[in-house]
Amino acid sequence: MYLQLDQKTEDRIVEHFQKGDRLILTFEDGVGPYSQHAMIHMMVQFTVGIISADMPLDLYDKQMDSPLGPIYYKSESEDYLEEKMSLKFKEATSSYVLSSDSGMIDESVNFINFKDKK
After folding, report:
1. Which of 11, 50, 54, 74 is 20 to 30 A from residue 19's alpha carbon, by CA?
2. For position 37, which CATH number holds?
3. Is the per-residue pLDDT at 7 higher than 80?
4. Which domain of life is it from (predicted)?
């Protein structure tokens, strides 16, 4: 699996990224320390986050490649993901669009630096 990042997305993530940090793609299902909320409506929601090397990665049992290295995700989210995807910055909302060749997966992906919440 591969997640392509547009240049603006890459630049915005790199601003917060330090050596040893890990990137995560969280399906917002309410499970685990980095999920912000359970799905209470019928929308698919994801969050991109940064965690430090000492933060738990227990539920993130899979990884995909990206220009910034591996991105970890929970296997439960595979039903919504595809082999080749892209994440592009959306200027109007300062969020990101997660899509694949088949179409849009999530039009409002947020970014969270979980290191700031330690």
Report:
1. 74
2. 2.60.300.12
3. yes
4. Bacteria
